[in-house]
Specification:
alpha+beta; nine-stranded mixed β-sheet; four-stranded mixed β-sheet; globular; binds adenosine-3'-5'-diphosphate; binds magnesium ion
Length: 380
């Protein structure tokens, strides 16, 4: 509407002179043409072992093994009490693993024109986790959980690292026994469907250790924001195009028995699944639908690129273009706010449902997240 475009016009005019103080997350403001999002390119990968140690290789990459029956009898509760090693989610790793990857692989980051004087040493505008960007993408539709993102500029690149909100911490430390167990189910499904080697078979009798991870590092561009981010990848298919085209995201969800459940699945779950896989260019999602007792009753594959078609019959449903336009404007907002190049200075961006994005500035505070070993490195 005219009202919306006028508001937008004033916001962009303002940004040219002094940073806007806030950013609206109203979905109506972001119903524009889909912005340019370049095909993500994998520039590297790394692995985290059962002790959360970093390895600059793909030792933790697993292979998807199609279940032999379309309706397998996977019991996701099996092993919870006696074959489960849970990652300590009270330990905040921030961007550390990505920063280790950057120090070891900076030559692999592609600068399109080697001779051009990039305004940053790394040649990218933003470094972050895929999961942080997923939260930004889904913000215009989120009504339950807010977020806090810390941003610091170092040698021309803005690093973005999540800070746990007080509400998220409260949820984490008061989870019920049922919730704790259900968080295991997703990982157990991975064990039923993944093998360690290209010609291996899954080992459902083994231990589930959620410290282990394989992460892809991808480079892409959203409008004029050059991005470098990393995301955990569940597995790959054996005979397939090169990464990230070979990757598969595994998911579990409650079985769908009623039209209301189907609608909720489309409106809420598929939004998060789409955002998570679209960002790094993961083409397919294999979902295990389970009953209340954790028994998988069916398996269904979703093509990431077809999810937006799938949900179009849903009334007032989410739109990929709104997610991507909001992310684009959010990154522009961050660029306008994060002006000082100082790794000890943190701009804390905060958002709560039904509110605007706001920020505060903190020097030498507990929010500082770029470690000494990273900013002291002399190889720039
Ligand atoms: P499901 O999503 O199948 O339930 P991912 O799917 O991103 O690879 O994550 C693997 C599993 O980690 C999830 O499987 C879920 O069990 C758990 N998990 C991931 N993010 C979570 C979150 N925000 N809260 C609770 N559990 C989460
Ligand atoms: Mg995963
Ligand atoms: Mg998964």
């Amino acid at each position: 509407s005219d009202f919306n475009s006028d508001k937008r016009h004033r916001a962009s005019e303002e940004a040219q002179h002094r940073p806007a103080e806030t950013l609206s997350a109203h979905r109506q403001l972001y119903e524009r043409n889909f912005p340019l999002y370049k095909q993500p390119v994998e520039v590297g990968f790394f692995s985290l072992d059962s002790h959360r140690n970093f390895f600059n290789d793909q030792r933790q990459l697993r292979y998807y093994v199609e279940p032999r029956k379309s309706c397998p009898d996977f019991n996701l509760r099996d092993g919870y009490t006696n074959r489960f090693v849970k990652r300590d989610d009270g330990v905040k790793e921030k961007l550390d693993h990505m920063l280790k990857w950057i120090l070891a692989n900076r030559d692999k980051i592609k600068t399109r024109d080697q001779t051009s004087s990039s305004s940053s040493a790394l040649g990218v505008d933003f470094v972050t986790w895929r999961g942080h960007l997923t939260k930004v993408l889904t913000t215009p539709y989120e009504t339950q959980e807010g977020w806090m993102l810390a941003a610091s500029k170092f040698r021309g690149t803005i690093y973005i690292s999540e800070v746990e909100t007080e509400a998220a911490r409260a949820n984490r430390v008061t989870r019920s026994e049922r919730q704790e167990e259900m968080m295991y189910w997703g990982y157990k499904f991975e064990q039923y469907t993944c093998a360690d080697g290209a010609d291996g078979t899954p080992d459902p009798g083994g231990v589930v250790n959620t410290n282990e991870a394989f992460c892809t590092v991808v480079q892409t561009r959203l409008a004029d924001h050059k991005l470098l981010f990393s995301g955990e990848v569940d597995c790959r298919v054996k005979d397939a195009p090169p990464a990230p085209g070979c990757y598969v995201e595994l998911k579990t969800s409650a079985e769908i028995c009623t039209p209301k459940q189907r609608s909720n699945f489309h409106r809420y779950k598929l939004l998060k699944w789409w955002a998570q896989s679209f960002l790094p260019g993961v083409p397919q999602i294999v979902a295990g639908f389970r009953d209340h007792d954790g028994i998988v009753v069916s398996i269904q594959t979703f093509q990431t690129s077809k999810i937006s078609q799938l949900i179009k019959n849903e009334q007032n449903c989410w739109k990929p273009t709104v997610c991507m336009n909001f992310c684009n404007d959010f990154l522009s907002f961050v660029k306008s706010v994060v002006k000082e190049d100082d790794p000890r200075l943190v701009y804390l961006l905060e958002w709560d449902p039904h509110r605007d994005v706001t920020y505060t500035v903190h020097r030498d505070s507990p929010f500082t997240f770029l470690p000494e070993w990273y900013v002291k490195d002399t190889r720039s």
